[in-house]
Specification:
CATH topology: Thiol Ester Dehydrase, Chain A
Strand order of the largest sheet: 1-3-4-5-2
Largest sheet: 5 strands, antiparallel
Oligomer: single chain
Shape: elongated
Number of domains: 1
CATH superfamily: Hotdog Thioesterase
Distance between the termini: 20 Å
Number of strands: 5
Structural class: alpha+beta
Length: 129
């Protein structure tokens, strides 16, 4: 792992099931995450993914790439374009810094309408047991 290394992209199909399951799992019962009619009444064309689901997917992207020794230390993300059902989010990352066994990766998750998520993830690789 070196500064400037690019992680391979990860494509995540955005399904209604993923959006609703993520909202339920994170105990986010806001109607815009499960009720299309309520979402439309509030100005959205459909239900959309919540930030906690996005946060979990960003963490998964890092841990899937770097393996089971990965310990997330800090996840700092910002949402942009919503993730709607039927779209695909593509996560990509670039290693920004490496200090010993700790690194920071800049993350971008884009979909058909723009960047859904941007930010950084700082993590460490724990010693093999």
């Amino acid at each position: 792992m070196r500064t400037g290394d690019e992680l391979p992209p990860l494509e995540i199909p955005i399904t209604r099931t993923l959006i609703v399951a993520g909202a339920i799992a994170s105990r986010d019962y806001q109607d815009v995450h499960h009720d299309p009619e309520s979402a439309r009444q509030k100005g959205s064309p459909d239900i959309f993914m919540n930030i906690l689901t996005t946060n979990g997917l960003v963490g998964r992207y890092i841990t899937d790439h770097f393996g089971p020794r990965t310990v997330l230390r800090k996840v700092a993300i910002r949402l942009g374009a919503p993730n709607y059902p039927g779209d695909t989010m593509v996560l990509s990352g670039t290693v920004e810094t490496v200090e010993g066994t700790t690194a920071t990766v800049r993350i971008v998750g884009s979909n058909g309408i723009g960047n859904h998520v941007t930010g950084t993830v700082t993590f460490s690789l724990k010693d093999a047991e």
